[in-house]
Amino acid sequence: MINKNEQISPFLVFFLVLKVQIGVGVLGFQRLIIKSAGNDAWIAVIAAGLLFSIIIWCMFTLLNSQKQDLMGIHTQLFGKVLGGFLNMIWITYWLLMGIAVYRAYVEVVQAWMFPQINVMTFSIVFALLIYYTVSGGFQVLTGICFLGVIIPSYLILTIFFPLEYTDFRNLLPVWNHSYKEIALATRDMSLSYMGFSTLLMFYPLIKHQKKANKWAQLANILSLLSYLLLTIVSIGFYSENQISRYVWATLSFWSIVEVPFIERFEYIGIATWVIFILPNICLFIWAATKGTSILFKVEPNRISILFLVILIVMSIALKDRETINTFQDYMSYVGFILYTVYIPILLCLSYIMSKIRKKTHEN
Amino acid sequence: MKKFPFQKSNQSQTPQFNEAIQQLKESKDFTSFMFGLERDTLCISYFTTLIDTDILHRDLLPYLNKSSSTLENAVQALPIENLLFTQKPDDMQNHLLIGYISITMEGKDDQAVLIKADSQKSRTVSLPEVEFSVIGPKESLVESLDTNLNLIRKRLPIQELKVEELIVGKLSKSRVAVLHIDGICDKKNVSTVIQRITNLDVNQIIDSSYISQMITDKKNSPFPQFIDTERPDRLAAVLGEGKLVILVDGAPHGLIGPATLVEFFTASEDYFLNWTMASFFRLVRFFAVLFSILITPIYVAILTYHYELLPKNLINTLVISRSGIPFPPILEALVLELVIELLREAGARLPTKVGQTIGIVGGIVIGTASVEAGLTSNVLLIIVALSALASFTTPVYQMGNTIRLIRFPFLLMAYYIGILGVAISFCFMLIHLLRITTLGRPYLEPLYPPKLHSLKDSLIRLPFSFLSKRPAPKHKD
Fold it and tell me: The complex's ipTM?
């Protein structure tokens, strides 16, 4: 069974969830939601946050009743063949999510710092870093998630710089958009909240699993609040027209940060962002690796090497902004379905199955 | 050990003490002579270079019963508390080699008496040199294990302080003592350490640092995983915190384990000062370490890639200082860092007085001259010198070495992709730190896994009234 030393205390789930929720998306989520909901975008942020609160609850209900990870649940409910197939879908999703996050970050680096960067060499260095983390085990991964929240947390202070120039009257009039527009924005916003599906894999590694739900919910609320803060400041700071032209609105905030000895603060921000997104990518790669090693009974380190090679190849293959965008849109569409449709259905099925099993047991 | 033979053993099986003594006589400094009134009955042997002849003359020879016929009778009146009787010639040889005197009886070649008479030649307890502090105790460990144990035990006069002694090394036969306080220290740690030390298969243990390198969890890590200290007061203090201490005979340094990263930045002085000052100094130390690791790489990163990162006035200063310098920033920085290392290494090898001269020649003359010759920029000279200085603020000497070493990969990464490279190297370092365990415990504790109550005495030191949660010894009923 699982070694006690490898298990983590439930409150660290807070950092694991928070970390994957606030990833590379936070650098530029504003454009997407303001596009459809305008100055009411903040409503979409809250709505999406609450929606994901429910989904987290769904996940925990499912996991608490089954007491095993997603791989186990699938094989138990659907048998080896169909369950294995569903497992493959999730593994692919996690792997591609890891690549999407990584590529999005490289995109930021290319756009803001090094337009001429050699993606292959950079990816090899980064893949080494990921391998070093993932091969260290889940404890190390949790550790880097924890430090990945604590160390860059100073960046939240930079929100005070644009405050000087914000005009909160931009928020008015409240609710001048249709339900449909807000729903669209909510769907777009939900991309930013995604990522905690890795919970389905690391659930068995939590001590006192029942307590973890509380921490995951808290993390969700905190990411809701930080997104809300950013959205409100963005609405106040930019005009709607302006923001539709900014791919990375948060990064543009940093351009106006003034510190006596630093002129271009966004460089510092982007460098700090390495430690911010490294845990995200590692968590996804770890979940995919762990799933595959359970499915095919192979040594995890070899699989993670294979996955990292895929990561390097994919990030070279995704060349221009457009392909990356299409890829990310596609990923978020799949993700949205997996979270909001698949998980609730799985919960219902698991509930029904356990009822049936109970009945047959009684008879 | 103290066994009396009640049956006369068979002549063919009697241990040959005579032969054993003859073997040892091949050494010039071995003495063996017959001693007795009428017949030469008693054979007294020892290494003249190992024993204290005063003991022989004052306490041994006058009290021997020269006319007795058995060995027990002969040594009965000796004013020595611990007489060792042995029937094994090997045992006798081993004891002779660590400063015992053996007495055998001529004709009765079946047992020997061993008397401890080793001369305690060691330095006197003196001032700590590596970890000097202005206030607080001024004693430091010496090379003698017994003196060191005395220094610790007199600070902890409780029965729970346990000392386990092991002999390590096929050639050196070094005594290694493992100390812990029963009821505070984790039993598992004690047994792990003892197990690891017993499993060592080495010829010589010259210093405690041998042990620390051989029994660490991650042997390839540049980060030290045992604190090395020469202050007995620090050893006594950490014993009370549930750590265990390893002392080696012949080493004026004790090892503390399991040691976490934060503890390498705590000095004994932190506890002698008021908590506000202590916390301030600790923060200064952490800042110094970060500064020391990051500042040269950041300089290289900025001057190679990100001129625009700095405000105009600052970049002006930098550019003016660099104008006319024929090397790229990375080469300039690497060369200067290596020069500082060279100076440090030369200073460490040279006798104190010459070392000072070298410091002046190296630091001032070469520094000024190279700036005037246009080989280095004076800003970088300041930065490199400061970061070298900052690396010496760590209270544990080995940590300072580590910090100076890990700066080089940072430099190379900074040359590769600027501050992004610095950030990536920093991540590598963090993950490395997360992967290290000391005696099975995470190295970054209490930062990760976060332990709130231990945080009170980590990056800062809160007043003693806050630190009262420290475990007190549990008395056994």
Answer: 0.93
